[in-house]
């Protein structure tokens, strides 16, 4: 092995990391490297840069390559004596050994409280790998590239000892995958200067023991009092509560004023009581089923959220634990969105005052794809929250029945974060001081570099996945070790007793905690019960309102023209694309009332009027700046720009001097995390219009968990109101099964208890009014808008100016053809969406003057009064037909038929016209699409057959 090492030169090969580190140190401070290296690097600066730069910092690869070439030519060695060469070679080997521990030391760290596995063989961590012998151990070498001591030299024995103490103790640090040398040096300094061991006062140690006692005490109290009830116990991972306490107290000391926490089940009840300060008696009432039932559905206790204010050395800190379903990690992007909304409300662009903390299980962190999506958002402009502190409760088992060989495909459960260059601190849960120290470092890193960081608490799970589980059925060996484990609190109490802190300290704290439990008192001191937060949001004005409650959505003509001029007047410094230039010229004409208003202008004017009135607008999604179908052009790109990061203009950000923010974000290629983020944002800001647009409505499939667990049911389960808007392009245009249907039927199936609004507007004025309605009303429910594709440019879907300066969103649009006499109508066709325009054209072809066509623009809550009023106009109509583009088993048919039936008159019959039932949302062959489209239109005017419902 060393033969190959030598053949590549002592300046290259396995020493490439050392060469790079030396070069990084030189760039930072030339005086920090040995003279011969500094001379070489100085000479290298005179070599012309290949990247055209004239600064000191050149790429590392050419540096390392130059050493390889010089080694081959023996150019460096000819000037060096054999004795100096031997010393230099050993010094390089020492640096390689140091680099190896920085890269691989975590593999030898003492992380497992159960001590189930042997330390792996890693030759690179052994001095013998570099041909060092016992006789070399007391030789002095340079230590200037380390932080172990202020002295410039250490013996090899001292260096090896320092390396093992730092990187192979209770903390296993991974940070060398980070490319930024400043960040790497930050970690090296903090770990190596302390040997990864904290120095805590006696009072601090007592506080840590107190938190461990609280964590264990609650679990044992519940285990005794509520036998067999699910609670997802934290036993075996009690150090997590000490970590949470440290995050909160230290963050408050650093100026953080709000912390939003997301976590699944494990330890959640413990966090509620011992971190957030929920009254134990309130938790007991939930176990005893005596808690008040204030919600239509409610949820189990280990899904519940909570908020409180606690005192810290830096002042009060508001804590929010997000409500979450059993879909594990899906709460994470919701938390990030909530944090971003709070930051925006405070004007905090860096994350100085608001901190997201996400708590994960080991298997879920490695296995759930939403984590990758959420991490991918972390450093993007529209979604950054200034870094997240991740804490993993690593039970080393994943879920009860899993075989260790099947847990994941990576070495660590945290390896996913290496893709975004987040550092990881693995820490032994049985060393609570190390856990607290790792948490301190993680928080300080986050505040310094605004990036995600992970604390992986390696612990165990004393009980099963839940308290009704018997884990020894499938994990007999592991649970034999767990049964013999005395518990983290006992181990730490004994350690403090041995340090002279009192033989009875542990027992005294346990008795005090048990007394608090028996009395149902607070276990967090102090919880601020009457603290008034400056940036708190009051949802009270929006609660208890009806969807029919008004809100004037028309705007005066003068205001329309003023806004239209502002958003269509482009600065001379911007050179738009010729197509975009025409779009804006056309919009200017629309603003003046010279031509009808199209969809893009109607949407723009809705946004402009809102921000001008002080309502922020946040619009995100793939392609949403331009619009998937190039109808929006909210962001204008200067065609003469020379840099990619300059030369854009957003007209809606220039509506008025004191306007509210307009933010448009082209998201990453993600649906699940982005939609969850926007849901979280909207849930923390009722005064902003928050819109997520799918590239195609079908792609919302990738976010179905968010739709099912949050958007549709969050209010009835948790009492969480939300005004998020989803725009889902929908319509059968012959584009195949994945570009036709936004699965309207799924939303209709989820619609109940007035939980959401489902609309399908068909004109420019309708999208204008419905967007404004969502925010100007004091009513907040999620709204799903099925937006068109071909109608975006269909002149029939444009609207005259008067429909914007007067009127409102029409939930039902009646027959518009004045030539259709109501008394002669025999059939009424009801529909929703694009098919309306096809039906009108078909009626003209057939000259069917006895057929009236009405559009249902709001499918839920169904507008019974407006629909009934339209039906009653046609007293001689004996037939009603529901016509839709979608297959019969999809679309709105199975849901609206009951609503329609309710409003029919005696003797009327109801039939269906549309595509036959299908396993696929749409066909992929163009000719089949055309055949089906012709057939459904013919069916709409033909004799009723098949299923017919009679009043």
Automatic annotation (TrEMBL):
EC number of this enzyme: 1.2.4.2
CDD domains xrefs: TPP_E1_OGDC_like (cd02016)
Keyword Ribonucleoprotein: no
GO cellular component terms listed in the entry, alphabetical order: cytosol; oxoglutarate dehydrogenase complex
Similarity comment: Belongs to the alpha-ketoglutarate dehydrogenase family.
UniProt cross-references to NCBIfam families, sorted A to Z: 2oxo_dh_E1, PRK09404.1, PRK12270.1
Protein's recorded name: 2-oxoglutarate dehydrogenase E1 component
